[in-house]
Design goal:
The chain is of the alpha/beta class and about 280 residues long. Helix content is about 35%, strand content about 20%. Strands 3-2-1-4-5-7-6 form a 7-stranded mixed beta sheet, with helices on both faces. Helix 3 links the parallel strand 2 and strand 3. Helix 5 packs across helix 8. The chain is globular, with a radius of gyration of 22 Å.
Length: about 280
């Protein structure tokens, strides 16, 4: 059974649900659309059919795959109701072991309280040799926005930005969750903004604003100072480039048919012999 929300958790689960409900009213999907495009490109390289799929953190239910049965899980009640998803958190989902042959997750792992737990649950929900594909915003995302607020609140810095996972740590998390053949890579999506309000509007539409418990509300003075800092980073045409660093994850549920690393000590040639100078 789900446990009560812990005061030691990184993110406020109730606030996360509210922010996703707000985003459902004016959803800005371009970053997740880009992620889904990347996941589909990776799927095209896999020569097999996937019949039972879990969309872990489904937003508006945009992910589709012809001929497949897709089960959707979504933390936000409004998105869940609109897309026919099961409403639950990604690190507390109810699916039994070996239920799916593909799990995809786009745009949510960066705001999940227990990322290792969510990945472990996804791995358990896969059948042997099942595939996990994920994408989320990783380390380096929103560098211009972070710098602008840091300068605006230099006298009294406030924790307004989430901790971020870099690509190397992401690969380690896949291995810790029990995935075989783990791969993590990163892609930069650069977007140019005419001003800070445009970026904040997009972040609200993505449900990507601050979920840290106890963060004080933004004052008008702070917003104005941050907007000035953001504008100071603009190109000559008046637009500021913001970057979304998308980390992609690929991992397989273990199966004996998969390539295995060579057993330690099984080499038939000596490294010392190979390095000897040839006569």
């Amino acid at each position: 059974m789900p446990q009560p929300d812990s005061p030691s958790e990184i993110f406020d689960r109730a606030l996360r649900r509210k922010r996703r409900d707000r985003a459902a009213r004016a959803y800005e999907s371009f970053v997740r659309d880009h992620m889904l495009e990347g996941l589909h490109e990776r799927l095209e390289g896999v020569k097999r059919e996937f019949r039972d799929i879990l969309d872990l953190g489904s937003f508006d239910g945009a992910f589709t795959l012809p001929g497949a049965s897709i089960t959707r899980l979504e933390a936000g009640p409004a998105f869940a109701a609109a897309s026919g998803a099961i409403q639950a958190d990604e690190d507390r989902h109810p699916f039994p072991e070996a239920s799916f042959d593909l799990v995809i997750s786009a745009g949510v792992l960066d705001s999940v309280n227990d990322v290792p737990g969510a990945l472990a649950l996804a791995q358990r929900a896969l059948r042997p040799d099942g595939l996990f594909l994920g994408a989320f915003l990783g380390a380096g995302t929103l560098a211009a926005l972070r710098a602008s607020f840091l300068a605006a609140e230099a006298d009294r810095p406030v924790a307004r930005f989430h901790p971020q996972i870099d690509v190397r740590a992401a690969g380690d998390l896949l291995g810790r969750a029990g995935f075989a053949l783990p791969v993590a890579d990163v892609e930069t999506l650069a977007v140019r903004y005419a001003g800070l309000p445009n970026l904040i509007r997009d972040l609200r539409g993505m449900a990507a604003t601050n979920l840290l418990p106890g963060a004080p509300p933004l004052s008008r003075a702070t917003l104005l100072a941050a907007a000035e800092q953001f504008a100071g980073r603009a190109d000559p045409d008046g637009r500021t480039t913001e970057r979304f660093e998308i980390v992609y994850l690929t991992g397989w549920a273990p199966d004996p048919s998969q390539p295995q690393p060579a057993r330690r000590g099984s080499a038939t040639a000596s490294l010392a012999e190979a390095l000897k100078p040839k006569p």
